[in-house]
Design brief:
- The protein is mainly α.
- It has 10 helices and 2 strands, in the order H-E-E-H-H-H-H-H-H-H-H-H.
- The protein has a two-stranded antiparallel sheet with strand order 1-2.
- The protein is elongated.
């Protein structure tokens, strides 16, 4: 065999090798149709589809964790805090507002005297009402929280079995209807999800059972020309949402009322907090007495 023939055969084998290798590579990212018409599944497509489904499941679990923190755990912590410490905290804040108002009243009276103007107490009180409107608003909000805590403390508590079912149903509904997981849900489905959130907040197991019967999981796209692109975009979208929800959970755990959890779980620390609030109340009451005496002296 001459050299020319040897080179020809080697070139043919190299071409065959490249064709086989290209076919193997293409099998990873594309689907082929067999002679019987059956679709051969792409390994990469199925791997990505499985990854996106796992991310959806993880997102539904994180959303449940966040909502449980917001609507159940933190509400329970706040209820316990208000019942144990809320009344003394309210009195301390009320005394603080009263002391600050009296101090400001002294400043306004003194300003009138410095300008040798007539001191009209009713006008000064109107000014104080305006300046301290935000303080009064916060006092009213504290009263509202106390009322909510009292109402919640008397509410019926679900059994462990019912509570477990409540969480299971809610996670199923979240996975099927939450707009973050399913951007294409209809307005009617969004309303249904809002009803589910309200039912979860109030522990309404009956309503969640009804909604749970109505929903199923939205399927991921089947193989077609744009399916891989859709899945890649969905994976990126879910990655951003997962990061955002984790940050949200961390924020909830770093703020009131969750930060009161450790105090309430320790009887000694609870008592210490109560004593601190009582001490603050006593200090402001002393200031109130001093400021009132000062005002009486100024108005003589």
């Amino acid at each position: 065999m001459d050299e020319k023939e040897i080179r020809k055969r080697l070139a043919g084998r190299a071409a065959e090798y490249l064709m086989v290798r290209d076919d193997e590579e293409n099998a990873k990212t594309t689907a082929e149709v067999s002679s019987s018409g059956n679709v051969i599944v792409f390994p990469d497509f199925e791997k990505l589809k499985s990854e996106v489904e796992k991310m959806r499941t993880e997102l539904s679990m994180l959303l449940l964790e966040r909502d449980e923190l917001q609507f159940v755990i933190c509400k329970n912590i706040e209820t316990e805090y208000m019942l144990k410490l809320g009344s003394i905290e309210y009195k301390a804040y009320e005394a603080q507002c009263a002391a600050l108002r009296l101090k400001r009243k002294i400043e306004l009276i003194q300003a009138k005297k410095n300008r040798q103007e007539k001191v009209i107490i009713s006008a000064i009180e109107e000014t104080l009402d305006s300046e301290f409107a935000e303080y009064q608003k916060q006092l009213n909000e504290q009263i509202d929280r106390m009322n909510d805590a009292l109402k919640r403390s008397k509410a019926e508590v679900l059994s462990d079995e019912d509570n477990k079912e409540l969480k299971k149903l809610y996670r199923k509904i979240v996975k099927a209807l939450h707009p973050d997981i399913n951007p294409d849900v209809s307005q009617a489905q969004v309303q249904l999800f809002d009803n589910a959130v309200s039912a979860y907040k109030s522990g309404d197991l009956g309503t969640l059972r009804i909604i749970g019967e109505m929903v199923g999981n939205n399927p991921l796209p089947e193989q077609h020309k744009d399916a891989m692109t859709q899945l890649v975009e969905e994976r990126e979208r879910l990655q951003g949402l997962l990061k955002s929800i984790r940050e949200s959970i961390d924020n909830i755990k770093s703020e009131y009322p969750y930060t009161m959890k450790d105090i309430l779980e320790d009887t000694e620390r609870t008592e210490q907090k109560k004593q601190e609030l009582e001490s603050i109340l006593e200090q402001y009451n002393e200031l109130i007495s001093i400021y009132k005496a000062k005002i009486e002296e100024m108005l003589r």
